[in-house]
User: Fold these one by one.
Assistant:
Number 1:
Amino acid sequence: MVIIVTGTIGIGKTTVCKKVIDMARSDGYSCGGILTFKTPDGGLVIEDIQTGRKEKLASTEAIYEGPATKKYSFSTIGIQFGIRAIEQGSALDILFIDELGQLELRGEGFSNVIDLVSTGKIQNLVAVIRKALLEFFLPSLGSPVIFETTCENRDNLPGKIWASFLHL
């Protein structure tokens, strides 16, 4: 099952994923993959869900040697850290990817997830994709179940997402 958590920037998509992870773990499921968090200076940190280890992923300043978007420069060390977390997490019950974005559309970043899904190597995926980018990813992800995060539903949304897994 492929589930997409979407919504606008800053609406709480990562928080929704964290709560789904907690629900899955409390029911005995193993979870892996990555979560991303903003830092106080506006950069990004990536967390390996399985181990809890963190690594700097991106900065709003051009300080990293990796790929760049209009807003961020990315650390190749952070990207490789995330790729390893994804590869290790793909063998677990549920893989979480927070988030697929501009880099992946260009075949960079964590674009290997798209290949893993299309070849059937990932059975259960929860991917965060910003609402504005959703149309570009849908053709590669089969027939995902899409949950949009809003201010009104973000407290109840994790339970709805988890319930969809339990009905498999």
Number 2:
Amino acid sequence: MSELYLVTGGAGFIGSNIVRKLVSLKKKTRVIDNLSTGKMDNIADLKDKIEFIQGDLRYLNTVMEVMDGVDYVLHQAALPSVPRSIQTPIESNDNNINGTLNILYAASKNKVKRVIYAASSSAYGDAPTLPKVETMKSSPLSPYAVNKLAGELYCAAFTNVYGLETVALRYFNVFGPYQDPGSYYSAVIPKFIKALLEGKAPIIYGDGEQSRDFSYIDNVVSANLLACTAPNVAGQLINVACGERTSLNDLYRMLQDILGVHIAAEYSDPRPGDVKHSLANIDRAKELLDYKVLIPVIAGLEKTTAWFRNYYQL
């Protein structure tokens, strides 16, 4: 009997890409999403190949039902965005911490083999030390970062206390197809691309010299699947990124060159809760997961802009 993978938030950006990979590998796949930020359009072409449940992880009865028979959980569901969490901290806490606790509890009760948790590099905060190593002290600056750190700690606790195998993957600025550019809370790359395709000037918050370790989605999908079956990783916290950093100004120049559109960006005040620089040490991922950077940043940007150009028919 084939193993069953549950992808929470499977209609969202990262989740839908994981679902696509699982389907391509002919893995039995169940998806739960409340569609608050995810979109059915992201997985509409897969509806006959997956089991989809529209449900909310904040309700334990729902989570217990969806967990039945599951072997591996890829927990991507979250209410994302630092700015959103600053505006609605109670809602963020309810979704990101209580939802994760329900997942871990239900997985433990249903004897799930392993839970892979989508953690966030925001937990590192704005400490000047680079690159960020998993052994560094956490220093979250926003409610969202606190939420994601709490999820990591709950994962470790469930491994230690209940024997549930968990792996927390700290993502660094993931980008790629199916990422939503349409919201105030959207990530910077899809917003830049959409603005350029529409001939508009994007807004850069701060001076643009803040830097990020951008990682194309295929790298993150690979890390998740490796983490499901890698030996001796239960309870581990692992950075997932490319191990190089790019300033927002350089990023914007690269996107202008790729698209052949040159428009001066508009600059605005820095946003509260945003870190200045982010760069991952990925040695632990390489050692424990046999992780490799499949797609470097520039190639990922080319793939992403091509997808968005096709998506918007521009």
Number 3:
Amino acid sequence: MTSLVWQIAAGTSDRAYFDKFMDYGVALLGPGDLGKWEDSQSERFDRFINAFGKRAEEGEPIVLRNGKNKIIAVGIIAGPYEYFDQFDDVYGWDLQHGRRVRWRKLEKEHAFSTSVFGANPPKFSRTWNEDVIDIVRKVVHSEPSQWKSEPLPPLPPPEPELQLAPTYLLPLLAEIRDVYPQFWDNRFNSIPSEDEMVAHFVVPFLKCFGWKTENIAVKWRFADIVLFRTLPRVPKNIALIIEAKRMDTAAESALSQAKHYADKFKVQGELLVTDGIRYRLFDYDGRRIAYANLSRLKQSSATLFEKLTFSNLD
């Protein structure tokens, strides 16, 4: 194989977005908030985005990796660099830098016995590993081969921003706009803990929707937050179970823990997971109902706000 072979990751083990790559025929890279990549302004971007935009060429193979030694899919780059507004919030990541890719997902994730992508693999780069290139060669030249010329799946439409946030949320949103970027400042030494996010953001967020102090139980029988429709605080009065994660971690991974407490308390209502900034509501069976990212509000967040309102939550 004479062309270059590229590798790209799709999130972390607890916050992966492989499905986005497969469903929409894309490879995505962030951070995207600096705006569209331009070769003439390459100094604004890191070397990975520059390689993604300039060096990788249409027709070259690309590997979708998982961690240091696993391959999920092999693809062929199917178009030039594009800036996709619709991927500005993928599980909290801004991934607007994109290329169209025709992917062929492996029937079974291929795991190598060594770290073929390196001890600390870059988010996007060329790979020289002969074992990886051999897998790519076999996939690209194997039958069936129609995947290499099939039409690309349609992209999702960009979701409009929420033009007018509820007035009762404005003070909290202003604080998030002010404080959230500072959490990455070296003066913090480390990002805020789960408990800190619950105290500073989650509980104030809930109070915006009419939940009073007596209805909000923190660390109730080890569950992070339990909302009660009325007193006394007993399982039959539970309105919602909430599990929190540390800021900028995979809030979605807390669903199993929330489900554990639902089973423990013998309730089968909705479940909310959060990192203090992002909130995702599930039904008892794990189906997604609503989502809001308080640092990047979209129109669909209104559904979550309505569902969380004290008078509406059944």
